[in-house]
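WARN no homologs supplied; continuing
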Amino acid sequence: MWGPKNKAQLDLQVTLDRHQDAMRRTHIEDSIPMAWNGLDSFDGVAPHKTRVTIRLDADMVKWFRKLGPNYSQRMNDVLRIYWSALMGGQISAYIGDDPMPRMQLEMNDLNRRLKEQNAEMGIT
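OK structure emitted
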């Protein structure tokens, strides 16, 4: 018997499979700008917000709205969690994805910024 929980699990699997296939075809790592280095989340400064128009599934919008005020911030948080997990190597963009090059680029950029900050403060 297909109850709501089983239907939700099946819907999740189908949606994940569809997105996994789409990401494999488009190689998401090629579409992520180098400027998205994730340091905004470490600097303690809120990133600049950009207004966009986007079409979302009605059931997803309804669910986020039911969670209360600031639902668009929660949607942004979900995207940031996904992006952070992708950049951090906890998840793969597509089957066979190697997150190590992304992680190494992020670490190199972070080290460069830290060296620049230390040099500005006179720390050797």
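The two ends are 67 Å apart (CA to CA).
OK
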